[in-house]
Amino acid sequence: MVAGTGDATDKYRRWATYASVTVALILIAAKLASYMATGAVAILSSLMDSSVDLLASIVTLLGVAQALRAPDTTHRFGHGKAEPLAALAQAAFVAGSGVFLGYEGVGRLAEPRPVENAELGIATMVFAIVMTGLLLLVQRWVIRRTKSMAIAADSMHYSGDLLMNSAVIAALGLTAWTGWPYWDPIFALGIAAFLVWGASRIVREALGVLMDRELPDGDRARVKEVVRAHSQTRGIHDLRTRSTGIGQHIEFHLELDPHLTLAEAHDITDEIERELRAAFPNAEFAIHQEPAGLEDERLDHRIRR
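Structure for Divalent metal cation transporter FieF, as requested:
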């Protein structure tokens, strides 16, 4: 039986993507004007990151829209893997901007330039922090309710933006206070390193879903706990789990009394599935019933070997 995402959950996902694109556009306009007025490479770094955020947010919007499509004749498992694919595209954008920013920062170390209108730059960054903070509140509210990987990856970008904007403020303030021109490119290089590190995290998480990595040990333990709590359960084996991108897929072999009728075994399985669905509302389940005590070739045995 397939558990689809609810209309409200789908709506939350779409709202989060629209909010992300809107905030990115506003911040790009503000930071571009500020960079043209100050010439600060630290502001350029933040502008680059916001530009990447816009591309990533658009990819997220498209990825979420694709992931929410219903199963069809050519994709009977649904389209949920579009979310980790969108996350991989985000990682490519983030890593590319980090490399470019690092190149620009090294150039400014070799040929430092004065920063003008530092006050305007600081005011722009404060505005960016406020806008980013509001967006993060929306995204985290949605993530708690949807577990969306693409939106979580997008949220990580904007979490990094809070640190980045704070670093830009520090760079501008130190440059204006000390007159030393190297604060600006030094902070830019630090931000570049942070972007590349963040991209590597996104790649690891997205590949885990695309390669059907098992759900966390706590989730697997919860499945076994729910199944074994039923009075008719005689055992469970060959439990396999994975993320579908927008939910989970859980399958296992359920051991039952061999003297049960087919109808009785079916009813017991339905009861267990209802209990599991309460714990994993966005999961799909595939449960194979077999008589307890049957000795057969099992996945668990192959894994142990």
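The beta strands are 235-243, 248-256, 283-291.
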